[in-house]
Amino acid sequence: MRFLKTIMLGAALSIAASTAMADKIPLGNISNYLNELTTAKGDFTQINSDGTISTGTIYIKRPGRVRFEYNAPDTGLVIAGSNTVVIYDTKSNQPPETYPLSRTPLSIILARKVNLGQAKMVTGHAYDGTATTVTAQDPENPQYGNIQMKFTGPTPELRQWIINDGNGGQTTVVLGELQKGGNIPNNLFNVGTPGRNNR
């Protein structure tokens, strides 16, 4: 399975810089939005590094947990939980791939306390006339790559992201309408016994 070592897509039309500066969503508002996003579920479309497209359902349970279930013909499953990201491919005879969550840009939005105002975390903050794009990295470990998050406003809503990993890979995830709040079972994020959720 093609992994999403990276995540979301952006870009509309550029407009005058003065207007962009006036309309972009402040970083403090975006940090507050992410910190208040405790649980969410929705559809996603993933654009892989090789140009292929996958779809599925995303489950978010902050802090530290996310699950990507892929629709057929893909049979993959990606789970972040217990400070680990595990990539399952049921078509493969190989064991699942495992990475520390802290070494992926996903750790930025799954952190217990998101603070985009932290020194050297944000390397880009722009408005293109349609959405605000924030590029962020772990200031202690920039070699792990970055995440470009796209928000629409004025009240921030996360619409997509692009993950650029430390190996040069890029994965874009476009989110459908997120259903925020509600109960999402903890066992969906069990990296030892992933199973499939009955949707």
Describe the structure in brief.
This is Outer membrane lipoprotein-sorting protein. With 199 residues, the chain is mainly beta.
Largest sheet: 12 strands, antiparallel
The CATH superfamily title: Lipoprotein localisation LolA/LolB/LppX
Tally of separate domains? 1
Q: Determine the oligomeric state from the structure.
A: single chain
Question: Could you describe the 3D structure shown?
Answer:
There is one protein chain. With 199 residues, the protein is mostly beta strands. It has a single domain (17-176), classed as outer membrane lipoprotein receptor (LolB), chain A, CATH 2.50.20. The protein has three helices and twelve strands; from the N terminus they run ααββββββαββββββ. Strands 1, 2, 3, 4, 5, 6, 7, 8, 9, 10, 11 and 12 form a twelve-stranded antiparallel beta sheet that branches. Keywords: Lipoprotein, Signal. Residues 1-22 form the signal peptide. InterPro entries: LolA/LolB/LppX, OM_lipoprot_carrier_LolA-like. This is Outer membrane lipoprotein-sorting protein.
Q: How is the secondary structure organized here?
A:
Layout: H1 17-23, H2 27-36, E1 39-47, E2 53-61, E3 65-70, E4 76-81, E5 84-89, E6 97-100, H3 106-110, E7 122-127, E8 132-137, E9 145-152, E10 157-165, E11 170-175, E12 179-180
